[in-house]
Fold AsmA family protein.
Amino acid sequence: MKLLLKLLLSLILLFLILISLGYGILRSQWGIAAACRWISDATAYHLSIERFTHSWSHPLTFELDNMTFGEDGQPALLITDKLSFSLTARQLLTPSHFDQITIKQGSLVLSNLTPEATLPFSADRLELQAVKLLNPYPTNCLSAKKIDGVVIPWQPSQQAVLGKKFTFNFSAENVHVGGRQFDKLIAQGDKDHQILTIHHLSGAVDRGTFEGQLERSAEGVWQIPYLALDNIRFQTEKPLVDIITQQLSTDVTIKQLRVNHLSIVGPDWVINDLSAEGINLRNSTPPEGKLSLNAGSLILGTEEWSQPHLSLTGSGGNLHIDRFTAGWAKGTVSAEGEWQEKERHLLLNQLVFSNIHYVLPSAWQAFLQEKLPSFIDTITLNTLRVDNGLLIDITPDFPFQMTATHITGNHLQIAQHHQWGIWRGDAEYYAATTTFNRQDVRALWFKIKANSDSLKLQEIKALIGDGPVIGDVDIAQSSPRSFSLSLRGEKVPYSAFNHWFWQHPLQGTGNFDLKLEGNFSLADGVRSAQGTFTTPSFTQKKVP
């Protein structure tokens, strides 16, 4: 028995001597360099350590100074000024698992880790202190400075450098993701295999701040329980239509949204001082939830809308426009209706313009020939009303002005197959005074009736000078857009026609009868026409 006890004590003593010897060797520069060479030769990793330090005030904690570590044949994965690790009794069974690993003031280059690699270390707690995250590939940019964080536990695996199940708490500065910079970023949450939950996420971006929560299901579906954006201002090169299309095509749910003082500048559009509130929003097919938007101003091309307000509700496969109001063209505009996503049909139950003074843009005819966005095929106005409007066209070829204009329309289809027009419905038009190519016309009134075959202007009535004029116009809806015009008048100054189509000087006042047929296009107006213009002074003069 005494012999066995002596043998055991001898083994313990030998073990302590070996530990002391190894400890002394590692504390020397030669020893730590030799250990690094042995690890680099014996494993699939390369390791370099300048100094190994230890304090007996913390006997189970060791520090490595100026350390680099990475896979063989790859640039360094980790470059750090100081790395410390703490031991536990678990080292006897799993030597590569530590109680805690702390990386201080180093740099991580995760792109230098191959997807099939698995880091040979793990820990109950991984702590980062003022660590940089670098990515040398600008097309897949993810970088950050001064990362402070904790991962509990840290059990890295293939394609999961932080592990598959852990809790985390991070803060960082100058975080670059996909070309956008975030400052003072804070994230707290946990990951359970494919399920990711961020209980708190906040930071600064584009001169503003954000705060929220994120959740990702095992199927990869994102949900945002809460998102708040404050005083964010940024620029984009994308057209507004592209941004709307992208948002509608992104399947994400936001349970609660709050936006304050958001401003966006696009290539030909500006949203200024936008505030919004949303509940249970889902950019799905169909969209769901309730959203209320208010802005200081909205600029689209040359058009400016002041104090626009929009309330939307997505339900039943449609996006309901509960209310839209804005100041526009020195007047106001309001609307309500719905967008039917499946049919790509914008149906406005009511559209009202009041007291607008609107100068048509120089390219308004070209605009009406452009295709509508892909998500809008048809536009229908169940009720259209224009009250006391002023419409002006200043194009030099044929300028016009319509003063004190009143329009009422019912079931007007103003777009089909992504093309503007008046395809169906009926309306009445009245203007107290109008000017067509510098010729005054008073009390202009007519009815509009449209169907799939033709667009008719019926019962046209007006005063030219002191003479009444009546007539009708019929325009075919299909190419080549043939038309017929019938117009009669009494005691009309003939000089009016010098401003419109007659090439020879006309004088005096009297009756006339005009009949005209030809082809019409929105781009070129009347492309070709022929007919007769008859007055008591001469008969059946052919119109060129």
In short: DSSP finds four helices and 31 strands in the chain. Helices lie at 2-27, 29-42, 240-248, 364-369.
